[in-house]
Amino acid sequence: MSVSTSSGHRFDKLRTLRFGYGWRVARAIVRQALGREVQFRAQAWTTLAVGVLEVAVAIVPALLIFGRTDQVHGWSIGEVLMVTGAAQLLNAFLAAVITPNQSKMTDYIRNGDLDLILIRPAPAQLFAAFRWFEPAALLGALSGLAVLIVGWLQAGLHPSPAGVLFALGWFVLGCAAVALIWVNLGYLAFWLTSAGQLQEFLATLLTAGRYPLAFYPAAVRTIFLSLVPIGLATTIPVDALRGRNSLPELIIAVLLLGVLAMITRLHWLAGLRSYSGASS
Amino acid sequence: MTGPARRQLRFFSRLLRFNVAVTFVYRGDFMIMQLGNLIIPITSLLVWQAVLASGAPLPVSGRYLTTYFVLVAVVEMLASTWTAFFLAESIRNGELNQWLVRPTSTLVNAIANNIGEKLVKIIFLVPFVAAAVLILQLTGIGGGLGYPHQAVRWLAFAIAVVLAAAIRFTLDVLIGSLAFWFEDVQGFLRVSAVIVPVLSGAVVPLALMPAGWQLITQLQPFRFMLSFPMEVLLSDQQWTSGAPRTGFALQLLWLLIFVGGAALLWRRGLRSYSAVGA
């Protein structure tokens, strides 16, 4: 039995490493996602409409606040709108790539559907993380981008090219960090009966990222930079555009992201060891 | 009481006991859900306190804001429902059939589920509220809490909360009933999840809405799902001007409109319903 498993593993690895194989799997996933979207056109339109509505509602508090004052703790309305726009971009990314997969994690584990992922000739962890992709949710990024640009024009910022690069770097890093936290919450289903409510909780918590971290007390700020690192994708990139750049900080953040990725890998492996599906 | 009514009441009390027991089974999820309900009010509280701290002139005090948002969390927990989702689901997958052959309605069960869920919530709620009040009093965030001491105001608050919960429930039946005609009501649910918090005063106290919009803000139905109970309790201005009377009249009017709409949709939907075996 052990012989066949190890040879199976080797075979698995060969196929995964074969040039272009991963690319073909990714292409198939995207093609199928687009096909699904075309099939359920009404749903795609609703997703777009809700995305626009979400952004419209998200900027209401900012508009009300700045109807009464010019700045809050050093932030102008344009800069706050940029943060709101960045939060919406993060949201769109999560809704398109991360949540469709992680919301299925509980069912995979509880119903034993994970078996069907484990026996496939593709890297199981990546496959479970990216199998379902929802292109329509990416449309929400358009409204986020619009708010970001309007905010930018309003704020009248003139960042250096380095500042723009820093902002992009922080944003990508922040998205990755939040995504990894979300994935780890999904893996909690290995140990708990359901991770669904915890993920809902995180989703609601992320709405706090619409405002600059400066609006919150120090303790809350620390949480949004470490445990639920939403600030890395919203406030810090806008800060970079305002001219606050520091290379050492970015490098430390990259290293921490590496550690988080490693924890995610170990969490998955530990989860698989405790998993007992129909065939394992 | 007539025979059929007494019979329905007996069904109701059975269903209530059953639903309380079921809610207890999911107590872990339930706790997390309650904590999740606290996030929006806490965020709003912190943001508006920051606005106040940075020197913005607001028509309400820090103390009013703090008390308002603590109460928002409480009322939101007591008034919110999840009926729409389950109702739509049972219509879509034909589970409604089971209820059509029973001597009572799925709506009676939905009401029992709502009340049962709220009984369990109150048990969980007491420690949360006690902790929140204690933390706010000790830290003095936003000047601590301020609340009236007249019993009549608390009574009016309690009645307003019950009516708010009833409006929320009928709105849920209304949205859930749309599943008779639409494959997927998820879109409607998401739209209401985006709109209701803003228009009901969960994100921003309606007193902070622009003055030019006050008439619309005051008359629209969502105010009576959340904001109105708090106004009745906290606003001295309301009591001196005799506004609660108008407010309660409007709240009842909206409840009647929603009940009428929900009943109409439900009846029509049942007539057009065609699941396997129905």
From TrEMBL, chain B:
Pfam families: ABC2_membrane_6
The UniProt record lists the keyword Transmembrane helix: yes
Residues passing through the membrane, by range: 35-56, 68-88, 122-142, 154-182, 194-216, 248-266
Keywords: Membrane, Transmembrane, Transmembrane helix
PANTHER family: SLR1174 PROTEIN, SLR1174 PROTEIN-RELATED
Protein name (database record): ABC-2 type transport system permease protein
Species: Microlunatus elymi
Organism taxonomic ancestry: Bacteria, Bacillati, Actinomycetota, Actinomycetes, Propionibacteriales
